[in-house]
Design a protein that fits this description.
The complex is a heterodimer.
Chain A (H helix, E strand, L loop, with lengths): L1 E6 H12 L4 E7 L2 E7 L5 E8 L5 E4 L2 E6 H9 L6 E7 L4 E6 L2 E6 L19 E6 H14 L2 E7 L4 E7 L4 E7 L5 E3 L3 E6 H10 L5 E6 L5 E7 L4 E7 L7
Antiparallel strand pairs in A: 1-5, 1-7, 2-3, 2-6, 3-4, 4-18, 7-8, 8-9, 10-14, 10-16, 11-12, 11-15, 12-13, 16-17, 17-18
Helix pairs in contact in A: 1-2, 3-4
Chain B lengths: L4 H5 L1 E4 L9 E5 H12 L17 H15 L3 E6 L8 H24 L2 H10 L5 H13 L4 E3 L4 H10 L5 E3 L4 H4 L4 E4 L8 E4 H8 L3 H11 L12 H11 L2 H8 L6 H9 L17 H11 L4 H14 L10
Parallel strand pairs in B: 2-3, 2-5, 3-4, 5-6
Antiparallel strand pairs in B: 1-7, 6-7
Helix pairs in contact in B: 2-3, 3-15, 4-5, 10-11, 10-13, 11-12, 14-15
Classes of the chains: A alpha+beta, B alpha/beta.
Amino acid sequence: MFNAIVSADTLRATLDSVSVLVDECKIHLTDEGIEIRAVDPANVGMVDLRLDAAAFESYETDGGIIGVNLSRLEEFAGMADAGQLIQLELDEETRKLHVQIDGLEGTLALIDPDSIRQEPDLPDLDLPATVVLEGKDIDRAVTAADMVSDHIALGVETDDEVFYVDAEGDTDDVHFELGRDDLIDLVAGDAHSLFSLDYLKDMNKAIPKDAEIEMELGEEFPVKMHFDIAEGDGTVTYMLAPRIQSD
Amino acid sequence: MGNADLRDLAVIDTVAYDDLAGSVVAVDAHNWLYRYLTTTVKFTRDSAYTTADGEEVANLIGVVQGLPKFLEHDVTPVFVFDGGVTDLKEDEVQKRREQRERYEEQLEQAREEGDSVEVAKLESRTQRLTDTIVDTTRELLALLDVPVVDAPAEGEAQAARMARSGTVDYAGTEDYDALLFGSPMTLRQLTSKGDPECMDLDATLDEHDLTWEQLVDVGILCGTDFNEGVTGIGPKTAVKTVREHGDIWGVFEARDVYVENVDRIRSLFLDPPVTDDVAFDAGIEPDVDAAKAFVVEEWGVAADEVERGFERIAEATVQTGLDRWT
């Protein structure tokens, strides 16, 4: 059993943060809320998401797992105006999701969860540097790097207490740095890793510009980016594997 | 090269390369290389395929040009090499040898006539998998960290077995016989431009209401690498008659026909010499510089023939996976 009412904004933010990586996902329904963990087919980018029951206007379930085609559910959610409420109700017999937005009703066929790619194990990461910054700074770094290259280096200079972004293209390059005063917080530690911009651009699309992003970095290690959604009643963690750096 | 009649029966769909991301394919190495030696390596210069000493190196160019497509789509190829030649295949091997000799004669003539296009065409057809080709291919694959498996006998049967046992997701071969070897999902056209096609065994059996054994009987009636087909029986008739009479012996009795060694041919498909004892590391971390030195310096392949291929291999393998940290 699953019957919930949620604001269109919250549902869209939730779905968007997963759909930038995968087309289909499993949604775990628990007493505390919903949980989604997914990795892209190449095993490079991962999302780990939790949306608490408190993020819903109403939320009831007796547990279970449903498989969802994200773009279809996003289309349904897209029919609602911002702030409008969306009711989601699972029909156990037909294994369809009943969606209601005021007078608009529809049913969405679910996917057999067993047919969806297995959920990944969380990487075991002990990352030495932590940077807390605004989503708009990530957007700026990604946009600047995208002008010149298809990959981006993220790092922390321990001595200078600086978070920096480097992108080198064939002919042009950009460098962007933020000192302790420009950042919300900084735990300095030696860190430098190279990432594919394709993935980071996709993740950036789902990162709210005004959100506080906690970014953890290491030396040739995956980056972790952690932020809240639904006014703190939900959290999203992205993990992205690095590229091998040629010397 | 198997029997193309099977194509009329097989359920085959094009599959987007992007949808294969993350999968592992057991590639019949000889079949794959043969394609590169005969059709895919385009000949801008006839000297590109042999060294000054006359050793064939088109296989090295083929590997460098063929691998990026797998790696760029995050598909892991496992190359399965043939072990000993199955006795019954002698005929086919003999036939190919004769055909090659014919080509070689024509090649000689074209050379005398100075017809360079014809020479190039024929040269590609006379390529064969010599020991040198097999050895240098394996060494290059080792430098590129691409997994290799040795089949007890036929590579194709071994690749099919690995797909059947779930060790890999697909077998990869042009040969329709992969169906008879019981490969559940077989990718074809891995060397072609564009997307490959996937041959689905269960869907094929469902469509014709046959069992795997019956499909093998149908294949034998139409002709395989191991036997001539029965005159007058095409794929449609074969399906009908096997369904009607249950198995190939029923067909023999009802139609008064016969295929030599049918027991052995059947068991070559249904129970071929294969092994489940295979181990490989699907994480590919190539030493591109060493591979390039091997191809260009040691084997004298013109650097510009393989430059782009090596670049693509390097580019496709710089991305790590998160599973490295779990």
